[in-house]
Write a structure and sequence with these properties.
By secondary structure, this protein is mostly helical. A two-stranded antiparallel sheet has the order 1-2. The radius of gyration is 18 Å and the shape is globular. The protein has helices at about 1-10, 15-20, 35-60, 70-95, 105-130, 140-165, 170-180, 185-195, 195-200, 200-225, 230-250; strands at about 100, 100-105.
Length: about 250
């Protein structure tokens, strides 16, 4: 019961990150400081890269020792994770059309859509922790959730802040950002509730989550780091995030 309690709290962490970013509409007059944003995005990217290796892919390989092709679940799951995110983004682009003369808010839609596999990634980790025989520890799951939460802070802000600038009330802008992140704990909870189905597929699902997260890093976070000036701050953030996640995983795992 205690494990379940910690898991439920853990899957809420990314949602808290999105909500925190959305709350910037109440106390920021302009956009988030660019230097701080680059460090933050870089840190999240570093955490997610390290988590993909040590918290997801390596446990997937260890759980596949009885397979004739030990590498197959990790390789196949990773590829499917990347392909799934490519499909998600294609769906988002196809939905981009004019409605009643006004363009749909594709930014909000895209962020909400790609939050689903991120929530699943957190859910898979906590499902592994709850199973007790996957080698995944609570601290690893929480750190992964924190890494995604840090990445979600600027995402919440980039949804809410422009809406405020367009004349929406602070409350409505804040709620729009919050609702974009609510899908993450829902996706994570559904994954945990399907624990009995998830456990036999854990090697594939862990690497699937890794592939999905690496796609987010390469497609969204890395370009954001290198956009404009001060890209070295983003690289420093990546380095710090990667080292912290790696050290924690090795030391505590």
């Amino acid at each position: 019961m205690e494990k379940l309690f910690y898991s439920i709290l853990g899957i809420l962490i990314p949602f808290i990150g999105t909500s925190l970013g959305s709350s910037f509409v109440f106390f920021l007059k302009k956009e988030m400081n660019k230097k701080f944003q680059k460090i933050l995005v870089g840190f999240a990217a570093g955490v997610m890269i390290a988590a993909s290796v040590w918290s997801l892919i390596l446990p997937a390989v260890e759980m596949s020792e009885n397979y004739s092709l030990v590498w197959l679940p990790a390789a196949l799951g990773f590829a499917l994770g990347v392909l799934f995110l490519i499909l998600v983004h294609k769906i988002a682009l196809k939905c981009e059309e004019k409605k009643n003369g006004k363009k749909m808010n594709m930014l909000t839609f895209s962020v909400t859509l790609h939050n689903i596999p991120e929530g699943m990634a957190v859910g898979v980790c906590f499902a592994g922790f709850l199973s007790g025989n996957s080698g995944i520890m609570l601290i690893e799951s929480i750190i992964l959730a924190l890494g995604i939460a840090i990445q979600n802070i600027p995402e919440g802000a980039i949804i809410s802040m422009p809406m405020k600038m367009e004349g929406k009330s602070k409350g409505k802008a804040f709620l729009a950002g919050v609702f974009s992140g609510i899908v993450e704990p829902i996706a994570a909870l559904v994954t945990i509730l399907l624990l009995n189905l998830v456990v036999p597929l854990l090697p594939y699902l862990l690497s699937f989550a890794a592939g999905a997260m690496i796609y987010v890093v390469v497609e969204e976070l890395v370009p954001e780091i290198h956009e404009g000036a001060k890209s070295k701050l983003g690289v420093i953030g990546v380095t710090i995030g990667f080292i912290i996640m790696m050290v924690l995983d090795i030391a505590l795992g």
